[in-house]
Request: fold
Amino acid sequence: MGDWIAETYTSDVGWSLLTDLVDVGNRMAGSEGEREAAALTRDALEAAGARNARLEEFDIQGWTRGSSALDAGGAEQDCIALPRSPSGSVAAEFVDLGYGLPEDYAEADLDGKIVMARSDVPSHFERYIHRREKYYHAVEAGAAAFVYRNHVEGCLPPTGSVGTPEDPIGDVPAVGVSNEVGARLARRFDGEEVTVSVEAEIDSATSQNVHAEVGPDTDDRVLVTSHVDAHDIAEGAMDNGAGTAMVVEIANALALREDELDATVEFVAYGAEEVGLVGSSVDAEARDHDSVTAILNNDGVTRGRDLMAFTNGFDELGDLAGGVAERFDHPFTANPKPAPHSDHWPFVQWGVPGYHVMSETGEQGRGWGHTFADTLDKVDPRDHREQAIVLTELAVELAEEGFDVARRDPDEIAADLERYDLAEGMQIIGDWPYDD
Reply:
């Protein structure tokens, strides 16, 4: 057992790919940079010993950033457009909606106004509210534009897409502002007229998923996944270059342990995750779900030392992660709640067992993610090495013949989403796949 651990702890294949990915520059979905990053990932998987490394292309809605502006009191305030915002310019009364909880929208007159909401929720609120949910509550309330305020200090405006699967371009212009700019807007301009402007190039584009395999050629397979795209404003080291580096590191380790695998382990680095889980949705629509025994999705790993996995109501997955954590004496929390905003979800929503693995970040949430500060210096090679060992062992156990996780009925998944108060938000952003 010790040989593969030593090899993994001293390996540089994943970290080398991570440095290559961040040096690509813009990895926005549909860009040349995303295509280059996908090719680098394919080549790294092949060099790690995985077979049949390949790219599979698909069409997406293209969006390329132009200029954006927020004028208040005759002064331009620092901002960035949210991807898939439509182009347009709006001058209207500004309303600070604070956290932007559902009841805040219900109680305010927002028709024809420019609405600002924070990126976090108060401590008493029991669930995270996704950016797109806040945006579409504003749209439903008749808002003319949307301003998304970062809750993390540091003068960093946040990015993050709007749009739905049916209508990939949003309804009203949307921009992100830093916590500090948001505080200034709330203090000085609430109830005053401000102007929000966005220019963007909207056209057709293509993205691609990266695939490769190790282990025996079986009908059943375990998917070990990440996403290779990132927002165009930063290096995307944490979100999600580190996740893709982890997939390659696991592939390298499993190539050394191939004789221990009872099922095919397929590595997939998805494209176009940041604009609505497009690549994984394409894969899920084309794949026989009965052939997928489990998914180990790496999105947000390495940005902290301790691991956490959403197990989406699959108790066996929580037990398995707990056993691996105990064996390696590594902090690894299993959270049973559903997590519908990463690339495991297009499978899990139909009952396929799946993890979403990330690092613990506490109240910081996404932290530096989705800002200019998502850079390589924020992640630690030690965390990458240690987590690679734990997650490799988890992948091996998922591929063991004796390990079986019962699928869940989609009605049970839907009931969980209702129970955790996630259903309404998913419905308003167009991500609810179930018949009422």
